[in-house]
From TrEMBL:
Domain of life: Bacteria
ABC transporter domain boundaries: 5-230
Keyword Iron-sulfur belongs to the record: no
Keywords on record: ATP-binding, Nucleotide-binding, Transport
Name listed for the protein in its UniProt record: ABC transporter ATP-binding protein
Pfam families to which the protein is assigned, alphabetical: ABC_tran (PF00005)
Gene Ontology molecular function terms on file: ATP binding; ATP hydrolysis activity
Length: 298
């Protein structure tokens, strides 16, 4: 596997504490990777480290085969659209394209103008007069026309209405298919990730809790329902992610590669949203691969 992003014992500390700690992660090239986690989990910190906007406190991070932000050649490999889809309010759409051409050695001017025309953006319109969706599309155009190997998007659709969000994601997928981009997309909206992502990273309490291809992760997780029992009595190869109980019934989300043979359980599949929520709800001390679970008593 060729990794577009590789982190080893990566950590970042601010005055208030660690925003990211002990991060070990490999994100494969050629995928659209969804990065999800609660507020304060460290998502933006990880993406800013990958873009070279921050320097690690501990450990290492490698992006597209080099150190983030280490020089012009490395910067040219990475496109970054921050959470507020930054544009310059006083500059026109055409000004942004001219600026992109001057700053990026691999700039594809024909691609940039084709997208602007297809999106119906007025080249003479100042960015400050565009709608939120239009600004997001302009920022995406700048990121794609840079012709990066990796495009990093930090909550790019958070402030958009559902229609603008859908159009943004459709355009993103078209760009991925046409130009072979690797993408890391951070979002709170799991439904959006499910629509576009084939690889997933769940970040909770400054640590990676889950990472892998979406199809494989869903196949390895199951919901078990049956008579009430202690989750600690399950076989060792069934990692309990979350548990809830009523007086008579227990419902578990477990991870296992082995078949579940106990006839007392009713086994069903787990959707992506339920999978993400199960990991986001785990106690911070549980960490990846450990036994403690979230137990909900009803």
């Amino acid at each position: 596997m060729t990794a577009v992003l590789r982190a080893r014992q990566l950590g970042k500390k601010y005055r208030r504490g660690w925003a990211l700690t002990g991060c070990a992660l490999d994100i494969p090239a050629g995928h659209v990777t969804g990065l999800v986690g609660p507020n304060g989990a460290g998502k933006s910190t990880l993406l800013n480290l990958a873009a070279g906007m921050l320097a690690p406190t501990t450990g290492t991070i490698e992006v597209c085969g080099g150190m983030p932000g280490s020089g012009p050649a490395q910067l040219a490999k990475v496109g970054f659209v921050a959470q507020d889809t930054p544009t310059y309010a006083g500059l026109t759409v055409a000004d942004h394209l001219r600026l992109g051409a001057r700053l990026n050695p691999n700039w594809d001017d024909a691609l940039a103008h084709r997208r602007i025309e297809r999106l119906g953006l007025d080249p003479g319109q100042r960015a400050g007069k565009l709608s939120g969706g239009q600004r997001a599309q302009l920022a995406l155009t700048l990121g794609i026309a840079k012709r990066p190997e990796l495009l990093i998007l930090d909550e790019p659709v958070a402030a958009l209405d559902p229609l603008a969000r859908r159009e943004f994601l459709q355009d993103l997928m078209e760009a991925v298919a046409e130009h072979g981009l690797s993408v890391v997309l951070s979002s709170h909206l799991v439904a959006d990730l499910e629509r576009v992502c084939d690889h997933l990273v769940v970040l909770v309490a400054a640590q990676v809790q889950l990472a892998g291809e979406v199809e494989d992760l869903l196949a390895a997780h199951h919901r078990l329902s049956g008579p009430r029992r202690d989750p600690a009595t399950l076989p060792a190869d069934q990692q309990v992610i979350s548990a809830s109980h009523t007086d008579r019934q227990t419902t578990l989300v477990v991870r296992t590669e082995a078949p579940i043979l106990d006839p007392a359980w009713t086994v069903s599949t787990v959707g992506l949203e339920d999978l993400v929520l199960a990991y986001m709800s785990r106690p911070a001390e549980a960490g990846p691969g450990r036994r403690p679970t979230l137990e909900v008593l009803r």
